[in-house]
Design brief:
This protein is about 40% helix and about 5% strand. With about 70 residues, the protein is mainly α. Strands 1-2 form a two-stranded antiparallel sheet. The longest helix is centred in the last third of the chain and has 14 residues.
Length: about 70
């Protein structure tokens, strides 16, 4: 997970990839929209193939810590 960094001075403190101005959110949204990792590597030359598993692992860790509660109607 050392590929995901948080710095208040970069992208308003959102989690980024290796301190670049590329957020985890940007990559997750692109992947969810069907953009291939090859296209993302072309679009963001500073990305490395190892960044994608780090992004997905980071998101999985956040989801595993989140609890949802049903609200009675």
């Amino acid at each position: 997970m050392n590929r995901i960094t948080v710095n208040a001075g970069i992208m308003t403190g959102k989690p980024t990839i290796r301190g670049l101005r590329i957020t985890v959110e940007q990559i997750l949204k692109a992947l969810a929209a069907g953009v291939s990792t090859d296209d993302l590597l072309d679009d963001y030359p500073d990305l490395e193939p190892e960044d994608f598993p780090a992004v997905l692992g980071f998101a999985a860790d956040l989801v595993s810590e989140t609890q949802m509660y049903a609200v009675a109607a």
